[in-house]
Amino acid sequence: MLVSPHILFNHCYGKYTIAAVNVFNMEQIHGLFAAAEYSSTPIIVQVTPVARNYAHPTMIMAMIKAAAKIYPKVVFSIHLDHGNETHALDAIDQGYTSVMIDASHDDFESNIQRTKTVVEAAHPRNVFVEAELGVLSGVEDDLSVAENHAKYTDPCQAKEFVDRSGCDSLAVAIGTSHGAYKFSGGKGLQFAVLEKIQQALPEFPLVLHGSSGVKRNDIDEINRLGGALLKNASGVTDEEIKKAIPYGICKVNIATDLRLLWTKVHRLFFAEHPDQFDPVVPGKMYMEAYKTFMIERFEVFGSKGKA
Ligand code: G3H
Ligand code: 13P
Ligand code: NA
Ligand code: ZN
Question: Which residues bind Zn(2+) 2 (predicted)?
C-alpha cells in the first residue's frame, strides 16, 4: 500500500525510524520489498536523479509499482532523493508520494526560496517535501563535497527555515557523509547539535542522510577478493542510529551498504566460480543477501512489525 510519509512519521516519531533505501535496479527492489514483507516493516523506496536516469524514470517507477503487486502487504512511500526543481516536478507528475529538494549547497535565503517553490507545487497534490539545511561531505550524485566544506545544520536557523519554506521534514547535517568513507575525522554523530535542532523543532520529522553502516568485515572481504577500497572506510554504528531515534530522526537513508553488498556478492561469486557467466545466478544471490541484510536493519531501526 502506497502511503504518504506523513502517516509513517506520525506513527514512528521518537519511537523507531523508517529505512529509506536507494534503489537502482530490479534485484534491489525485489530484495527490499521481500524484506519489508517478511518483517512487516514500512519502508521508503527512494530514487536519486542518477538512478532514475540509469534505469529510466518510467522503468524504475514501473518496477516499484510491480513490486507493490508482487508484495501486496508492503506499506511504502516512493521518494525522490536529492532532486532539484525539475526532478521534483517530474516526480510529482509521476506519482511519487514525496520529494526531496536539495538546495542545501545554496545560501540560506536561496535554499528557503527554492524549497518553497517545490512546496507550492507539491502540497496541492498531497506530495510531501523533504528539504535539507547544512552540508554533508562525501559524494552524492555527481557532486563531491570535501570534508572541510561540510557544515553542520545550524539549530538557530532550523525553525526559521522550516517556517518560511513550508517543508514537511528536514534533513540535517550532524556529522554523517555520503559514501563509504564517513567520519574520517573519527568524530561520529554530533548529538549536541541534534538535540538543539529537536528543541527548535519539537515533534518535527528529521532525516539522517549518509546512514550506511559500512561494516569493516565487508570492506575487508571485498579487498580480499581483489577490491581496492580504502582501509579507513567507516559508517554509522547501530548504537548511533538507536540513540538518534528519540531525537526525532524518522528516516535513515541507506545506499552505500547495498552497493557494497552488490560488490561483495558478485566478487565472491565470480572468484569462486570463474567458469560461470550467467547473471541470473549471482543476481539471485544478491536478492537473497539484500533481503537478509534489510531484515537485520529493520530490527536495529525498531521498525519490524510496524506495518
Ligand atoms: O545520496 C545518495 C546516493 O548515495 C547517491 O546515489 O549514485 O544515485 O547519485 P547516486
Ligand atoms: P549512504 O551513502 O550512507 O548510504 O547514504 C545514502 C543517502 O544519504 C542517500 O540520500
Ligand atoms: Na545535500
Ligand atoms: Zn543523501
Answer: 102, 132
